[in-house]
Structure formats: structure tokens, C-alpha cells
Amino acid sequence: MTESQKHSPWRMSVAPMMDWTDRHCRYLHRLLTRHTLLYTEMVTTGALIHGDVARHLRFNDEEHPVALQLGGSEPADLAQCAKLAQEWSYDEVNLNCGCPSERVQRGAFGACLMNEKDLVADCVKAMRDVVDIPVTVKHRIGIDKVESYDFVRDFIGTVADAGCEVFIVHARNAWLKGLSPKENREIPPLRYDVVAQLKRDFPELTIAINGGIADDETAAAQLAQVDGVMVGREAYHNPWWLARWDALYYGDVASDATRESVEEEMVRYMEREAAAHGTHWYSIARHMLGLRQGMPGARRWRQVWSDHRLKTLPPREVMQLARTKPGRPVEDAELASV
């Protein structure tokens, strides 16, 4: 591992995931890894221009490095929102050219933008003209069932000419019709070789890979061919995996965190959020339910933290209940019925 690889912001990252990677989720992930780049959920330009900016952009200082992902296709609107990202101290702004959902398509952005590479180039240039932070693009390797390598190569070439230097490539096609977003993450075949070829053809660019990466063996194999790995659902469902990343992928000392210390820090965060913003702990706790995955007692611990009947209790009491032996003070039979 070279020094530049150790310190690349894109060496390891957690993907933007709708309804999941909010600021509470990112706070948990930052407790586990100091260096990994964290992405927001996609925020549309319309939501920022016409909505509550603070609600969409507020994040915790501890989350750095953190990137804002934008959804949109109007260069002027994206430029305005990129300026907001910089003003709010995000470390990067990313353009979504990979989401295949019909709702996103109706807004004329997401994966369908890959069919309009010149427009994407205009969007990137408009953002780069008004900010100093990196402007990056996340996209697929193709659209529908067309598997021409030339398509994605020309897309990257055109957008790179507009000044984009970092591409996060989901190694699947996006099927714009006939598949749900979930099916689009599972049915189109993964083609890691296409992403490796892109890196060979564009050695001067930073190319990171996304899609189906769920273990260290796969991540290490990809890092031997491209510049970075973006992990999606496995990072959410099994967050403890992230505790190994600083040592494995950045050459840093291993984290001394334990699952218990992370749970304790999350309870402190819940208390802080309640005092500062009136946030209920229940909306934060949902992000840490995978923390004890694979450990003895994980199912009961998860049931306690997700039990709606305990919502009236302060989070510190819920933590104590989750750590008690089965049967007391919350009966297992009751929890099993939740």
C-alpha cells in the first residue's frame, strides 16, 4: 500500500442509501472508523432550493470526511446546491447518475442521465465553477440490457473532460423498466472486470467500485485493481465490520472500540440529540440494530432496542434492559411478539 493510497479519501467509503445513511447512521459509522468517507442519502436539488435547507444539510462535526450526494439535472440548480454544500462544510459533492427508480426517472435524473453524457458534463462544470471541494459522479456501467463497454467509457471520457476526476462505479447495469430498485441491486449481473478496464483506460482518474462487496477478501481484491471500494448494505446491516477498516485499509492502528463502548457512545449521542433537537432515541437506535450481528444474545438485544413499547423510557434505561439476562426485566416471550 503506497502512502497516496493510504490517504486517498475514496479508498473506502459507505454508499449513499435512501432512508438509511442519515446523520445518525453516519455518527455510528464514524465511531467505528476514523478515515472512511461517508455519504449522505441523496438530496434532490428541489428539496434544497424550495425546502428546509437545515433539515437536509445539518450534520455532526464528528462525521468528517462526509460527502453530500445530489440528485438533479439542471446545471444552474446543481451549482446553487453545490455552493450550499460547501457553505455547510461538506468535503465533497457527488452527482447521482446511478439510481434507477421510476420516481427519480420522473425527475429526469439518476441513472437515466447516463444517456445524456453532455448534460452531465455541463452539470459537473457548473458545480466545479462555483466550489473548491471535489465534484464527483456515481454511476452504473450501463443502461438496460445494453452491455457495450464503449457506452460507459465514453460517458466517463466526456464527463472527465468537464473536470470530474473521481468516478464511483456501480458494477451493474441499471434497468430503467421492469425492475424495482431492490431488484436493480441484485438481478443485473456484477461485472467487476468492466470497472477494472475503466481504471486501465483512465489511469489518471480516481475510479472506485461499488456493488456486491461484503467481505474483506472481495474488498482487497478490488483494491488491487482500482482506487477505492464503496460498500453499501453490508456496512449498514453489519456495521461492526467497519471497525477493522482503519487498520486493514489505511495502515492505521486498530480501533480500540468495543460493541459495548459504541453502544454507550450512541446513548450519549441520543441524549445529546434529544436536548439539542428534540430527536427521539428510537429514530436513532434503528441504525445500530446490526451492531451485535453474529454474537450470542444479539437477537434479544436487537428486540429490546426495537421494542416500541419501550419508547417512553430514556435510552440509558433501554440499554440496561438490553444488557440484562434473558427473562428479566423484560420477558422474552413478550419481546418475541413485537
Would you write up a description of this structure?
It is an enzyme of class 1 (oxidoreductase). Helix content is about 45%, strand content about 15%. It is of the alpha/beta class and about 350 residues long. It folds into two domains: about 5-250, TIM Barrel (Alpha-Beta Barrel); about 260-335, Four Helix Bundle (Hemerythrin (Met), subunit A). It has an eight-stranded parallel β-barrel with strand order 1-2-3-4-5-6-7-8, surrounded by six helices. α2 (about 25-30) links the parallel β1 (about 10-15) and β2. The chain is globular and about 60 Å long. The model has no long low-confidence stretch (mean pLDDT about 90).
In brief:
By secondary structure, the chain is α/β, with parallel strands linked by helices.
What attributes does this structure have?
about 350 residues, alpha/beta, TIM Barrel, Four Helix Bundle (Hemerythrin (Met), subunit A), 8-stranded parallel beta barrel, 18 helices, 8 strands, about 45% helix, about 15% strand, tRNA-dihydrouridine(20/20a) synthase
Helix and strand composition category: alpha/beta
Low-confidence stretches: none
What is the CATH H-level superfamily of the largest domain? Aldolase class I
Biggest sheet features: 8 strands, parallel, barrel
CATH architecture of the largest domain: Alpha-Beta Barrel
Number of domains: 2
Fraction in beta strands: 5-15%
Report the span from N to C terminus.
48 Å
**Radius of gyration of CA atoms, rounded to a whole number:** 21 Å
Number of helical segments with 4 or more residues: 18
Q: In CATH's first tier, which class of the largest domain applies?
A: Alpha Beta
Number of strands: 8
Multimerization state? single chain
Q: Per the principal axes of the C-alpha atoms, what is the gross shape?
A: globular
Mean residue pLDDT: 92
Order of helices and strands: HEHEHHEHEHHEHEHHEHEHHHHHHH
Q: What percent of residues adopt helix (DSSP H or I)?
A: 40-55%
CATH topology of the largest domain: TIM Barrel
- Largest beta sheet: strand ordering: 1-2-3-4-5-6-7-8
